[in-house]
Amino acid sequence: ASETPEHDVIVIGGGPGGYVAAIKAAQAGLKTACIEKRGALGGTCLNVGCIPSKSLLNNSHIYHQILHDVKNRGIDVEGVKLNLTQMMKAKETSVTGLTKGIEYLFKKNGVEYIKGTATLTGEHEIKVNPLDGGSPETYNAKNIIIATGSEATPFPGLEIDEQRIITSTGAIALTEVPKKMIVIGGGIIGLEMGSVWSRLGSDVTVVEYLGAIGGPGMDADMAKTMQKILSKQGMKFKLNTKVMGGDINTDSIAINVEAAKGGKQETLGADVVLVAIGRRPYTTGLGLENVGVETDERGRIIIDQEYRTKIPHIRVIGDVTFGAMLAHKAEEEGIAAVEYISKGYGHVNYGAIPSVMYTHPEAAWVGLTEQEVKATGKDYNIGSFPFSANSRAKTNLDTEGMVKFITDKETDRILGIHIIGPNAGEMIAEGVLALEYGASAEDIARTSHAHPTLSEAFKEAAMAAFSKPIHA
Ligand code: FAD
Ligand code: NAD
Predict the structure, then answer these.
(1) Is the separation of the CB atoms in 126 and 311 below 8 Å?
(2) How far is the CA of 177 from the centre of ligand 1 (A)?
(3) Rounded to two decimals, what is the model's pTM?
(4) Which ligand has its closest atom nearest to the C-alpha of 207?
(5) pLDDT 10s digits, 142-157
(6) What distance in Å separates the CA atoms of residue 14 and residue 19, rounded to the nearest whole number?
(7) Distance between CA 290 and CA 311 in Å, rounded?
(8) Among this protein's residues, is 7 annotated catalytic?
(9) At what angle do helices 84-109 and 50-68 cross, to 10 degrees?
(10) ipTM of the predicted structure?
(11) Largest Cα–Cα distance in the chain?
(12) Ligand 2 and 276: CB distance under 6 A
């Protein structure tokens, strides 16, 4: 192994956490390298997560809309056919464009891109096994940022082959539409990928252990509304149901389930089973044990509020440590961790990280759920406004969903905002800003929103929380 000159910062992992940290560090004038082993930058998010799933969600929505929702708009179409190969190509074009874009940003900002697998061999030392198979190189760094991300949690007894028993990685790359798909887990991945294949013609059943869909963090009202909407679109749900195991035969898969209460058993048949029961931190081969960096019982690397492990110059961000597994959360942490290194202070407001589920309509939220507010014992107001009373939604014939504000009864300060509706993922940005600035519902209610826009529903929900809406 040869030795290279010392870097100020070496980032391990080129996902949204790692690549943002690397660019920020280089911008701060630090000699920076980023080590990535997958052969492309962008991590889970760009390669097999956020981006490919959103490409398929968008294009499957257009297909579904052409089949079911254009006749009443005065558009007659005939001979509509799915070309799945082309839909997958469109997805790949988006992915490659974006991952190459990060390589360009690395060059522009002077980040050294090292292609290989990193292992910590000392408190300041990293060994890299190059992707091209050459001999290992040793790098030294004053500061190390670990951003190695996460992987799908496997389901015991159902071996993943990414063809018939799949994770999200298989679900963005199927070569045919399965006749029947079972989705284990009604969280965000289950509902997004379930939507894609249901729209393309698959008979999709979601089996969820809990009594509500949406995964952790979705407001109960929103989860119920979303389930109704997705059921209308053809998805089937089995809630309060445990998957016990499965039999994989040559021509079909049998999944055995049991009611969480009462124990009633049933066998469901499928061609493809999507395992979407959560993700777990990924540290395989990283060599944490070589330097004594510790993980908790769920495999998350333990850090303090400044992202430091017990070795202070080794910091950790993104999915591999605590908090929501979201790309924008990892990015904020990447910036903050570098600011701690370069300036001595940094900040992420964890109370104002939005969540978005990109179904149609979308679900988006920020702040506390009504259940969380209730648990604090605080008195609160609810203001909600349905899109069915919003002029733009009516004009667009896209009226499902609503905006819900939860505010402090005494001070009118916004505690949480929950939206189901067209473009909810964009609309929530206003809510995030409101929370960041400590806004009251009155602040929003007295702010002019252009007419006719969907955002007027946002304003009217704030009016409903603060006094009364005009249009409902
Ligand atoms: P990752 O993106 O996982 O990147 C870690 C990188 O480190 C990987 O590329 C890996 O190859 C590399 N690596 C690991 N170990 C080593 C090593 N020893 N040496 C070198 N390299 C290493 N989040 C959203 O906010 N919005 C979405 O719409 C969204 N959609 C998603 C859809 C799907 C199907 C999935 C699976 C996830 C989605 N997520 C979404 C979550 C998002 O992808 C993650 O939160 C985000 O990628 C985390 O970023 P990260 O930088 O922490 O890790
Ligand atoms: P999740 O935690 O969101 O949902 C998993 C669901 O599976 C939960 O509802 C859980 O109750 C259920 N479950 C767990 N074990 C089960 C079992 N044995 N049987 C039946 N149900 C079971 O996890 P996910 O959907 O796999 O997503 C993983 C991560 O990726 C999440 O942290 C999510 O934030 C992130 N992600 C985000 C987006 C987005 O932001 N749009 C999209 C995809 C993924």
Answers:
(1) no
(2) 26
(3) 0.98
(4) 2
(5) 999 999 999 999 999 9
(6) 5
(7) 12
(8) no
(9) 150
(10) 0.99
(11) 72
(12) yes
